[in-house]
Amino acid sequence: MQIADVPAGISLGETVGPQVYRLLRRRIIQAELLPGERLSESEVAKTLSVSRQPVREAFIKLSEEGLVQVLPQRGTFVTKISVAAVMDARFVREAIEADVVRLIAESREPDAVDELRRQVVEQKKVPHNDRSAFLRLDELFHHTLAASAGKSYAWNVIESVKAQMDRVRFLSVDDMHVTRLIDQHERIVEAIATNDQAGAEQAMRLHLREILNSLPEIAGSRAELFDRS
Amino acid sequence: MQIADVPAGISLGETVGPQVYRLLRRRIIQAELLPGERLSESEVAKTLSVSRQPVREAFIKLSEEGLVQVLPQRGTFVTKISVAAVMDARFVREAIEADVVRLIAESREPDAVDELRRQVVEQKKVPHNDRSAFLRLDELFHHTLAASAGKSYAWNVIESVKAQMDRVRFLSVDDMHVTRLIDQHERIVEAIATNDQAGAEQAMRLHLREILNSLPEIAGSRAELFDRS
DNA sequence: TGCGATTAACTGGTATGGTAGTAGGGTAGG
DNA sequence: CCTACCCTACTACCATACCAGTTAATCGCA
């Protein structure tokens, strides 16, 4: 969820374009920049004290992820959250991660299981009200799964696709829900530990379908953030 | 495989950046631009009679697909084909398309099956020596599958991921192989027609694993195009 | 002749200038 | 009063200029 602390401004050590991209991406996902809001190349550039050029590159990349819409000679706008887009992204993610856990369960690596178990313990320690801490650990967990399967490229795809889902998850405030998600993590890990490929796959699919439960509710209560649906 | 005819130059009707991107992408996949070759922003710009700006945007997008590598202050180079990258891409593609055909087989749509059968017939008509014609139809076939499942976004992901595989496929010249691929298409369609989800999934997975057979041979015979392996 | 330091040419990254095109407000005409 | 037009202000897109950093070749010296 890219919750990782990002400097508020722009640092000089790295190229500017990607920095602007990550900054805007985080602000869109965290709903600081609201759907429908207008973003101007020159305005953003002025605010961040950079030129329009890197801002433009950031806009292009954001538009490829579906977070903004660039209308030539008209303006660039934060997209409203599209239920269809969220479900499409979820579908792709489920497909990939289902095969990932299958792969891990097949070629068991005790080290990976140990690390995953350790992470689940860590997740349980998180205070129930600290949502962003959990989201960070959740991202780490799924990333570790992909890495354990030796599929770090697949993780890149997931990370890009995840953006749409993360926008929704950030709005989801029900804290009690977190324990449920951690339980699901635990089931995935234990299925992997016992080389239960089908079980691991099913557990993962179930886990990633959780968002389908909360989505309609959120889309209803925060209708102004969603694309007509 | 983006074999679709692309104008040799740059037209004025559309924004320039994406045009340059598609042009270079096609030339890399078709091995007109060879792995290791140096691409200069200014040189490409001069050749196409555009400014460096859109060329730069194209380079960025190509680097995200892993087709070029941008080394700041040093140069931009066409990446060598990486066997690992091809297999990673293949893994992601298999995961997504496996779920796609499952979905179609589940919710049978006679129209889709008819269209797919028609396409298979068309594929059989292609002369055995016209490789690019088959590759076009193959791309259409897989695109139609995704569209039939209502997952056009998933197709976008596949299209991006496919680039690495297409570089290899373009080098694969064994014509006889084509009939085998068409047979596999046929099996996929017939499994869908009988609502055989598991069968369709397995047929698709087998189909997408074909490249694993030819990959080692190609990587051996055209070693200069591949990253040390 | 061989080797090291210097420099000139070139790279991508950033900043800025210029252009076609859109949108919206205000005004003139019916 | 309503409508149609124009004009201004803004947009993203493209082109150009400048910069820091890398590379490689050449020149000077041992």
Automatic annotation (TrEMBL), chains A, B:
SUPFAM superfamilies: GntR ligand-binding domain-like, Winged helix' DNA-binding domain. The keyword Cell wall biogenesis/degradation does not apply. SMART domains: FCD, HTH_GNTR. InterPro entries: GntR_C, TF_FadR/GntR_C, Tscrpt_reg_HTH_GntR, WH-like_DNA-bd_sf, WH_DNA-bd_sf. Residues 14-81 form the HTH gntR-type domain. It holds the Pfam family FCD. Keywords: DNA-binding, Transcription, Transcription regulation. PANTHER family: HTH-TYPE TRANSCRIPTIONAL REPRESSOR RSPR, TRANSCRIPTIONAL REGULATOR, GNTR FAMILY. This is GntR family transcriptional regulator. It comes from Mesorhizobium retamae.
